[in-house]
Amino acid sequence: MLVYQVMAEWNGRDRASGRARAVKSWLDGAGIASSVCVERYRVDDAAMGLEPAKRVAASRREDAVLILHRDCMPRRAGRYLGKKGGKMLFYGTAPISPSPPRGEGDGPREGEEMARILARYGEGLRVVVHSQRTKGELAGMGCDQESIEVIPVVAEWERLAEMRGDRHLREYLDDGITNLLFCGEIAPQSRLVDLLDIFLAYHRLVNAASRLVLCGTPRLGYLRSLLAEVAERGIDDAVLLLADTRWAEKAACLETAHVFMSPGGGEEAFAEVATALLYSIPVVARENGYLEEYLDGSGIVYGDEDPVLVAELLENVRTDPLLRERVLLAQEKRYAEVGESEMRERFRQALGRIGVD
Description:
The chain has helices at 15-29, 53-59, 78-81, 108-121, 132-140, 167-173, 189-206, 220-232, 247-256, 270-278, 291-295, 307-319, 321-338, 340-352; strands spanning 2-7, 33-38, 51-52, 65-69, 87-92, 125-129, 148-150, 178-183, 210-215, 239-242, 259-262, 283-286, 300-302. It folds into two domains: 2-153 and 341-352, Rossmann fold (3-Layer(aba) Sandwich), CATH 3.40.50; 159-337, Rossmann fold (3-Layer(aba) Sandwich). It contains 14 helices and 13 strands. It is α/β, with parallel strands linked by helices. 42% of the residues are buried. The strands form two sheets. It has a seven-stranded parallel beta sheet with strand order 3-2-1-4-5-6-7.
């Protein structure tokens, strides 16, 4: 049996590529042959073992299994889903509620399109979403709930724990200063601005011996805007922006963090929060309708509170040993339910339902 993964393009460092890489690794670990195929195929993609997606559309074997990623969906679904054999679709993380915030997804138009796809190609097709909330929204638009799998995080993150953090960065960060960490590919800019306001209050009013570490890979224009926001608040010396990090550098940030901050951003935040749970870092997260489900009572979730109140909360989590212990124990229990091994098992079961064993 052969499994094809199809995606629009291979970035190598974004979430879609990370998801495809994790699926390939999980399949390899199960002894299942697979290939990753991209629609916008480039010559140098061959060196990474990628294949052009047009070959899949033209000659996919009838017994092959197709895993289709959302970045080439839903309007080109028929190109691939019309074939026989098992099929899986990663719906992804765009909100599909009736009135999504501007710039945060296609909303009901995409959800309704997904319902039409399931009605047409539903036999043998499983849809993977990252939360019960998204499953409910798709079901409300006519999708069969029995066809929807919930796998909160599809990524490899436990290998971080096997890697020693970059020695030089670790020494720089482990200097007695409190490190508040946000680690992720990207977050809505408005949410990161809120995070900067909270850190400003924390740094100026609560703990001057502190720094905010922003670790990720934002786009250049986004990065310039973020730097301008930092400069406007006069906290340039207290914010460390690591815009392009290797695994070892990310590990160093996690090893030296005192509190992990998540500004929200929908289901996209799950993978980052998962690493914080793995590293036993207290999580303080802004509610967004999705994170509450993922944390399920662990960590600390706040709403639209005044930045000063959140700043005081951060200090309590850092300095109160009883509160910190209670938070970490709850997070440890939650991680046992949503760790990578559990996600890998859910994925294996989902594959079994489309004929892969």
